[in-house]
Amino acid sequence: MTGIIKGTGACVPRNTLDNRELEKLVETSDKWIQERTGIQRRHIAAKDTAASMAAKAAKEALAQAKLKPEQMDMILVSTMSSEEVMPSMACRVQDEIGAFRAVCLDLNAACSGFIMAYATACAYIEAGLFQNILVIGSECLSNVTDWSDRGTCILFGDGAGAVVVTAAHGRGTIPVLGSDGTKGEALTLKNRKNQTPFSGPLTKEDLSPCYIRMDGQTVFKFAARKVPEAIEEVLLKNKLRKGDIKYYVLHQANKRIVEAVAKRIGEPAYKFPMNIQEYGNTSSASIPILLWEMQKQNMLHPGDNLVLAGFGGGLTWGAVIITWR
Ligand code: ACO
Question: What's the structural domain count of the chain?
Fold first, then answer.
């Protein structure tokens, strides 16, 4: 038994914020942002929340898979920007869509989260524990963005993507997943400081809002080295050659990172679809949103082998092979 993707769905907020509008918030320019990142605009939530977007994306994926919410055995949500720690976002989605049989849990591996969640879902299916799993990546990064920090606020956007993974005959593929906690400080989103009867008074800094902080160059160099390594390794482990791969669906963090990966593994740019110009970096939602768009554009056909690969805070990385059915 193995897991296959039966349906995809996505939800992005209606509001967009383009580079020209960002010029009014911080000292930056449309030219700089496009040249350094490839981003033209990003979608920013007004009324939507990460949980509401997750539920909308899930409903679309279920409709496409022609499966009912009550057929779901599990809901796995990857997020690092949930509005609440408890209940989990997966439980909120369960309630919203009526998937009353599902086991629900969240998982946080920053921008690698969707890959980790997908690999986890496949492992449950291959172990024979579950048949149908909703895997969702959902982020409301605008809530955790410091809109006065030009080094980060130009990058991020909000959105959710979902896939329904179901059990099918056939052998599973081997994922490549990894983490390096020693480099954790390169990309952080701190929570508020502990306040216990013994912790003493909190400083003004302890009470200040928590935002994403990033050493952009360290993350860039890490991604440009680690993602190609993970792709080469996942191909080797699954006895596939580059000629067997139709598309590389990479986390959409920066156009230059995607181009650097293509160059490093010696594959042509057309095999690396991108939508970063429209959505910016939506963290763990970026890969399922891109898959959903590719499917809508009729780019995916039965038998196509895809490599999905991500990287992000932790630091973390991952690559999986999927065969479209
Ligand atoms: N507008 C104009 N100038 C800027 C801006 C901006 N928005 N941001 C930085 N600059 C300036 C800097 O101050 C610097 O000026 P200086 O030379 O006078 O000091 C200059 O531009 C170059 O800055 P760098 O940081 O070296 O720019 P770089 O080419 O590295 O691009 C970027 C920055 C886009 C952030 C890049 O490093 C990057 O994409 N890194 C990877 C980020 C990433 O992928 N993060 C997400 C990981 S996924 C997750 O888990 C959330």
Answer: 2
In angstroms, the CA 238 to CA 119 distance is 14
**163 and 181, same domain (yes or no):** no
Q: Give residue for tokens 């690698």.
A: 112
How many residues are there in the chain? Answer: 325
Render pLDDT for 234-255 as a digit per residue (tens, 0 to 9).
Answer: 999 999 999 999 999 999 999 9
- For the CA of 316, the closest atom of ligand 1 is 50
How many CB atoms lie under 10 A from the CB of residue 166? 23
181 and 74 within one domain: no
Closest by CA position to 160, among listed 314, 319, 322, 12: 12
Exposure of 204 by Cβ count < 10 A (0-12 exposed, 13-18 middle, 19+ buried)?
Answer: exposed
Tens of pLDDT, residue by residue over 116-128, are: 999 999 999 999 9
End-to-end CA distance of the chain: 14
Picking from 63-72, 79-88, 102-111, 185-194, which range would have the lowest pLDDT averaged per residue?
Answer: 185-194
Q: Can you give the pTM of this predicted structure?
A: 0.96
18, 21, 26, 36: residue to mutate for ligand 1 pocket, most atoms within 8 A of CB: 36
Instruction: Taking residues 51-66, report their average pLDDT.
Output: 98
- The CB of 150 under 6 Å from ligand 1? The reply is yes
Tell me the CATH number at 317.
3.40.47.10
Say if residue 194's pLDDT is above 80. no
Of the three residues 148, 168, 188, the one that is the final residue of a domain is 168
Domain end marker among 168, 191, 221: 168
Per-residue pLDDT, 193: 72
